[in-house]
Amino acid sequence: MRGLLLLLLLYPFAEIATLVAMTDAWGGGVTMLWIIVSALIGIAMLRNQQLGALLTLGSLMHQGDQVSLYSLLWPLRYLLAGVLFLIPGVISDILALLLLLPLKGPSIKRPTMPPSAADNVIDGEYTRVDDPTDRSRHLP
Fold first, then answer.
1. What is the pTM of this model?
2. What are residue 31's phi and psi, to 5 degrees?
């Protein structure tokens, strides 16, 4: 727990240090262009996130019995990568690119649906046979 807290406290300083090193190596204009382009990529990813999730889930429904766990988590990974692209810095951009890698994870078996009541229908013909009624028992 302490390690995670320390990592969260050191992360902004590591991002600033990488930006300063990048500015020192390539110049301020290139660094500013990097930050602006990565933010625009993040905004575009977040705007198109709903369509991507819908297409991913639609394609998973047409696959066979085996579905990859990573492909089920793709919409979440895509959303997190978009947020990481919005954060200015090189480390967050590298983490976003790692999230976008097409990894093939462990397969999970899709649950099969039990047969519905519509599958148990028997086709046939019928005629209704009523008992003969006594007309004398009717009210006049």
1. 0.66
2. -65, -45
